[in-house]
Backbone:
């Protein structure tokens, strides 16, 4: 019996399928619960703090204001299952908050938020490509000095090595495609702001790069369709396995994927 198809693809889902098809299935088709991640939760917190910062008038977007926004974001998330599920004790919570503060402070080494002209934040965009719905959330959409669109994506993890940089830039062209389809304009620039270093990776999307994204995403969707039809999602062991929530069900680690289906059925 064929597995149900996912309802859409996002940059993270595309990356997940390319990284490990079996983990993609567990997360997006079987929808197995995943343990909260300190890194992901920290990213959510910092994203929210920067979103709040850009709700302030331009002259008020100072470091002090950003730290106040971070504190407000922490208060908002105090009872969020994503944070509560980490089970942090007082010392670990203090370290978590300190790490988030470091990321917010480093943001200011990348740009002066008082000079940015945002026109949208946390924008959900989606577009159809054949039978597929492409969906993505843009952290911040700006206008540059010439009136061009600029997509800004905050990254709180490690800067990718040279070998992985191009795969991460695939998300850049994904956002450019969505802007072109939804807004009728291709961004003049897309920037990935890695707060941990800090470093910015900037790309200028072209008609060719956007067309290539559409072709690659269509090919990935066809691979997902085949895998669902044949129930054939294979693991791809890598260093990412060290952080995977699904190792107990993975044959690469002696697990049985059928157990995952039993877990879903029991729910």
Residues:
């Amino acid at each position: 019996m064929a597995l149900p198809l996912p309802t859409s693809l996002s940059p993270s889902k595309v990356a997940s399928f390319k990284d490990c098809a079996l983990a993609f299935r567990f997360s997006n088709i079987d929808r197995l619960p995943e343990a909260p991640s300190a890194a992901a939760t920290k990213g959510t917190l910092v994203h929210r703090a920067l979103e709040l910062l850009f709700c302030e008038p331009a002259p008020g977007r100072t470091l002090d204001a950003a730290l106040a926004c971070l504190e407000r974001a922490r208060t908002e998330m105090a009872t969020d299952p994503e944070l509560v599920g980490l089970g942090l004790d007082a010392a670990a919570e203090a370290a978590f908050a300190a790490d988030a503060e470091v990321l917010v402070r480093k943001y200011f080494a990348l740009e002066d938020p008082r000079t940015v002209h945002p026109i949208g934040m946390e924008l959900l965009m989606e577009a159809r490509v054949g039978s597929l719905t492409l969906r993505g959330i843009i952290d911040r959409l700006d206008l540059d000095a010439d009136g061009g669109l600029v997509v800004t994506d905050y990254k709180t993890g490690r800067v990718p090595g040279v070998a992985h940089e191009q795969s991460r830039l695939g998300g850049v062209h994904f956002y450019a495609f969505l802007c072109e389809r939804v807004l009728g304009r291709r961004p003049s620039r897309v920037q990935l702001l890695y707060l941990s270093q800090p470093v910015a990776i900037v790309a200028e999307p072209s008609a060719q790069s956007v067309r290539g994204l559409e072709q690659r995403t269509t090919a990935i969707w066809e691979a997902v369709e085949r895998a669902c039809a044949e129930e054939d999602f294979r693991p791809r062991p890598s260093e990412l396995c060290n952080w995977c929530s699904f190792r107990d069900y993975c044959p690469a680690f002696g697990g049985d994927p059928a157990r995952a289906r039993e877990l879903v059925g029991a729910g």
